[in-house]
């Protein structure tokens, strides 16, 4: 499992409360706790919470599938996450799982709680829903992401026409469920033709920690190509509208060094960047 790729949630000042809920639900721990940023360890996976303000709302275009090993786990996780939340699909038996439910917790993060037949290392899997103008592009996205990232592979692909529990009016060749890995990190995805009142945004992003400038440049250039968009401070949107943060590990080393004033200089330099340039960060540090 790759620890250099992890999800980031955008919160409006209530991130600590959410972090406590997720740690309580999944038996996790808070590994970094600052007013702006919290890092969580859930099942050995990293999650990041930004207390960044009211600009972006989290939504179900990226949900999180929790692969449970027992029915008791399903019930426990469901009960905690559903409290003061909203049920999107009732906890019940479905053609794809003996026990499954989809819930939006009280902080706006959506979870698919799923009794899995297999033991897996990565228990929580980001699940991308391709809707509106992206509906029908899940397969294109899988191929694109697995081309861009090293150590990637395509897993199973189930199309709506394959007939597993498709009572809907979906296009037969569209993806009902697929899994793939980018650099050893598992992601699920699906197409959906329902006219949801949301789409991909910065409320939930995927962070990639890079080893050097070469890797940073490759990911930045590849993900912004063909209609993607550069944003500030290492943030970008790819051609489908999915938000990514491409962050060199060197940035954290320089920001969190012993000299606090130098760290502030690095932070200020980073704030003026779109793609993060390590050499410019180091120049700021030594200035």
Automatic annotation (TrEMBL):
<feature type="domain" description="PhnB-like">
    <location>
        <begin position="122"/>
        <end position="247"/>
    </location>
</feature>
<dbReference type="InterPro" id="IPR028973">
    <property type="entry name" value="PhnB-like"/>
</dbReference>
<dbReference type="InterPro" id="IPR029068">
    <property type="entry name" value="Glyas_Bleomycin-R_OHBP_Dase"/>
</dbReference>
<dbReference type="Pfam" id="PF06983">
    <property type="entry name" value="3-dmu-9_3-mt"/>
</dbReference>
<protein>
    <submittedName>
        <fullName>VOC family protein</fullName>
    </submittedName>
</protein>
<feature type="domain" description="PhnB-like">
    <location>
        <begin position="4"/>
        <end position="113"/>
    </location>
</feature>
């Amino acid at each position: 499992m790759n620890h250099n790729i992890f999800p980031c949630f955008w919160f409006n000042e209530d991130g600590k409360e959410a972090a406590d809920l997720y740690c309580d639900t999944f038996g996790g721990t808070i590994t970094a706790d600052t007013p702006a940023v919290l890092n969580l360890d859930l099942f050995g996976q990293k999650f990041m919470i930004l207390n960044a303000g009211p600009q972006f709302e989290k939504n179900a275009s990226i949900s999180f599938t929790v692969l449970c090993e027992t029915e008791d786990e399903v019930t426990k996780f469901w009960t905690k996450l559903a409290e003061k939340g909203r049920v999107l699909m009732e906890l019940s038996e479905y053609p794809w799982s003996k026990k499954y439910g989809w819930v939006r917790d009280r902080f706006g993060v959506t979870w698919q709680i799923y009794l899995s037949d297999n033991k897996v290392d990565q228990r929580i899997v980001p699940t991308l829903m391709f809707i509106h103008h992206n509906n029908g592009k899940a397969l294109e996205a899988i191929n694109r992401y697995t081309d861009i990232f090293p150590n990637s592979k395509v897993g199973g692909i189930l199309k709506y026409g394959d007939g597993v529990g498709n009572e809907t009016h979906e296009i037969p060749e569209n993806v009902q469920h697929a899994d793939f890995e980018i650099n050893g990190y598992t992601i699920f995805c699906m197409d959906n033709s329902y006219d949801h009142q949301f789409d991909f945004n910065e409320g939930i992003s995927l962070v990639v920690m890079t080893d050097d400038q070469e890797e940073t440049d490759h990911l930045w250039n590849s993900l912004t190509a063909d209609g993607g968009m550069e944003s500030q401070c290492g943030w970008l949107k790819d051609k489908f509208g999915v938000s990514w943060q491409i962050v060199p590990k060197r940035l954290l080393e320089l920001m969190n060094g012993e000299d606090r004033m130098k760290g502030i200089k690095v932070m200020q330099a980073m704030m003026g960047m779109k793609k993060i340039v390590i050499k410019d960060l180091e120049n700021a540090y030594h200035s």
